[in-house]
Amino acid sequence: MAQESQQLPAVHEAWLPREHALHRPRHGGRQLIALICAVVFFASPTLMWVFGARPAEIENRRLTGFPSLADGWGFFTGLASWGTDQLVFRPWAISAADGISEMIFGESAPHDQSGTNNGGPLPGSAPPAGATTPAPSNGGSGPLDQAGYRQVVEGSDGWLYYGLDAEAKCAPTRPLPETIARISELRNIVESSGRKFVWVVPPDKSTMVPQHLPSSYPGKECQQEAQAPTWAALDSAGIVDVRAGLQEAERQVGRAVYPPDDTHWSAEGGLVMAAALANAVQPGVTQTWTFKAIGSYTGSADLPPLLGKHGDKMEVVYDLRPDGVNDRAGKLIDIDTPAVTNVPPVTGQVSQKTLVYGDSFTKASSRYLQGAFSNLTMLSFSSNKISQDQAIQQFVDSDVVVLETVERNVSGSYLPFLSDDMLNALRTTLSAHPLN
What is the pTM of this model? Predict the structure, then answer.
């Protein structure tokens, strides 16, 4: 006798009689509580906004925006990040967590395990295939990120260091010789078009002020082992090396030229780089320069927010008189889009049309770069606000191309312009527009 095929019931399993083998209760009480919690979590930011409360940007990134329905399933996965960032009481919660962690464990709470940075891949991301990642010890203070490195290394006397300095040398996205070879290819492309090419590498804070680093932290050994070979290779590649100038500036001002809680150099570093680049383009041009401190201001330091905290740094402001008379120092400006200054040159200024294609150290030095070059364009190579064609056009419009890449960006090869597509497009465009 043929066995009848079994079919699922035509009603929901919760509506079946309790005696039925497929009956499953809805767990109504638990589901209701979960639903209420979800509504409170996602509705609270909106209600708080209506009553005037605003969340603060306490990390080194913008607050997560409300996800778009066009993201598909990403709309649902993005709601949690949006809701978390919109909690106005989050800074107090972080401070409370830090206090409890310091009291019980003697170290800060692990806020830096999923942050972002502006100088390359996420510190918590896994290294690319083929990269060698050491098994770091968890000495020192502070938590580890997902790849075994700290986003912020906490040193002595309150000094903080960017953990990417170590990770970039220990787990680069491509080997250093390959990175340098690609930059040499870029140099050849620019110079073959009749333009001048200059490459400057600002050193990492951990390179210039290592005395406050802890005795142990993830990646310290391979970072130190790579230090001398890295700079030997960079010098062989013909960079403008500003380390000696920074040491002399430190001697003159009697303090480090990197703030304790910021990864960028202070104004003295910007002056040193501006002078070094001007002399690289036009040797001896800075002989008439004079500058002096004319004030100071307090700004937000960039490393404490990566720990969920806030910190201030004091910055000295200098004038810059290339001819000894006229102050040509500008203002710190954003370089996500081409930042152009064009003024009549004075003695001591480079008058050739110059592009500085760089990272955040270009922005940090922009006040004094404007004093060194009378016809200047500054642009971030990490900007997503302009197209590749628009970026290449800045090369076309320049007589001199200055490439600025901080040490960690070179070590880790966090340099998006080294892609085959960008290099090939540059070669094609510049060869079609040689400098007459």
Answer: 0.73
